[in-house]
Amino acid sequence: MATTRRINPIDLNGITYKIIGAAYKVHSALGAGLLERIYEEAMIIQLAEEGLKVESQVLLPVYYRGRKLNSEFRLDLLVEDEVIVELKSVSEVTDLFSKQLLTYLKIADKPLGLLINFNVKSLDEGITRIGNFY
Fold first, then answer.
1. CATH number of the domain that residue 101 is part of
2. Is pTM, for the whole model, over 0.85?
3. Which domain holds residue 116?
4. pLDDT score, position 10
5. The total number of structural domains that make up the chain
6. Does residue 3 lie in a domain region?
7. Is position 36 within any domain?
8. Does a structural domain hold residue 2?
9. Among 3, 21, 47, 78, which residue is least crowded by beta carbons within 10 Å?
10. Cα angle, residue 25 at apex, residues 24 and 26 outer, rounded to 5°
11. Mind listing the pLDDT tens digit for each residue in 6-21?
């Protein structure tokens, strides 16, 4: 994949601050225990209201030895063309989810990702920030 533009880390912090704020608003309004797609739709609305560019279910092609594979990944949300947001509604977040997000970041050549699990009592327990800085 072609190298993407890199924005200032301060700008990344501002973007992630708004994303996390949006997640808190969604979690506060809807609570825990719903399907991921419900949170995704609500996040799209909230992020747009926060003035952020958001794309959902973004296809991410996978290449092996220079050849595009038939299989591809789908990113839950891509915010401001820089931050990948993976949404979960699970009883336990495992290392697999973090590793998966890091793989998405590397393949997409994006600097930062947020893994947000909405199936928690307090959203403080449900947010993981993962960087792809090199």
1. 3.40.1350
2. yes
3. 9-131
4. 64
5. 1
6. no
7. yes
8. no
9. 3
10. 90
11. 666 668 899 999 999 9
